[in-house]
Write a structure and sequence with these properties.
The structure is a single chain. The chain is about 30% helix and about 25% strand. The radius of gyration is 18 Å and the shape is globular. Helix 4 crosses helix 5. About 40% of the residues are buried. With about 260 residues, it is α/β, with parallel strands linked by helices. The longest helix has 15 residues. It has one domain: 3-Layer(aba) Sandwich (Rossmann fold). The N and C termini lie close together (about 10 Å).
């Protein structure tokens, strides 16, 4: 049975003044998938995320979220978003990890509603999901960049979104912890059934975790399952990126947790 698309993009184009950033993008993302968007700098990856999130106005084409046209979509709590915050976060910010994650419920509860016991439990469950529960009373500024990113993901998770969008989530994460970080995202996808969409430069590392890959450079050059992506010839990817690219092939048995399109 084909999964219902969580995002549908049709004939999407966007330009900044005279510069075309995206041209005729057609993309369907099924519910339950774990999709990575890769591409060189300036390829339109972040612009695409901003269009999906409604942060930029569509100039040409269509975007549907959960079957609803973007300009009519209202249920934004179904979507969590994590930007490259760890790289520029103010380490002197006076808030605990628990307080930061709690702030993710503000939109759902409203500013003046009381924080109840079940809401505290939601916060603890979100922290547990990203392996940060034991740091709940720690000041956010005392954490490493990778730990802060996990907290921001917990903040996005606490409102129980169905779609989680991440822009370069491993910025600020130590190289030796990148694999553990992607493993954590994979567990969110498999165990919670959350659809994940992320922009990344970690081409080799992602292939072990994600179910689908999109190669973007103004145009959509590739969209398919991870196995297909790994079969691409290195010279083809080098031409796409403009320089040599080495694809790392991982041969571990794993369950992507995503619904195949």
């Amino acid at each position: 049975m084909t999964a219902k698309p969580i995002i549908e993009i049709k004939r999407l184009s966007y330009r900044y003044e005279r510069d075309i950033v995206l041209e005729n993008i057609n993309l369907t993302i099924p519910n339950g998938s774990f999709l990575a968007i890769v591409g060189p700098n300036g390829s339109g990856k972040s612009t695409l995320l901003k269009l999906i999130l409604g942060l930029l106005k569509i100039q040409s084409g269509e975007i549907h979220l959960f079957g609803v046209e973007l300009n009519k979509f209202k249920n934004w709590q179904q979507i969590g978003y994590v930007s490259q915050k760890a790289n520029s976060f103010n380490t002197g910010f006076p808030a605990t990890v628990f307080e930061v994650v709690s702030s993710g419920l503000t939109k759902k509860l409203g500013l003046f509603n009381f924080f109840k016991k079940e809401h505290s439990q939601q916060v603890l469950e979100a922290l547990d999901a990203v392996g940060m529960k034991k740091f709940k009373n720690r000041n956010i500024g005392e954490l490493s960049g990778g730990q802060q990113q996990r907290v921001f993901i917990a903040r996005a998770l606490v409102s129980e979104p169905k779609l989680l969008i991440l822009d370069e989530p491993t910025v600020g994460v130590d190289a030796e912890n990148v694999n553990a970080f992607y493993h954590m995202l994979g567990e969110l996808n498999k165990k919670r059934g959350i659809t994940l969409l992320l922009v990344t430069h970690d081409i080799g590392t992602i292939s072990e975790r994600v179910s689908h890959v999109v190669c973007l450079n103004k145009h959509l050059h590739f969209h398919g399952e991870t196995d297909e992506f790994e079969k691409l010839r290195a010279e083809g990817m080098s031409e796409f990126y403009g320089h040599d690219v080495h694809l790392l092939s991982h041969h571990h048995e794993h369950d992507h947790g995503g619904v195949r399109s």
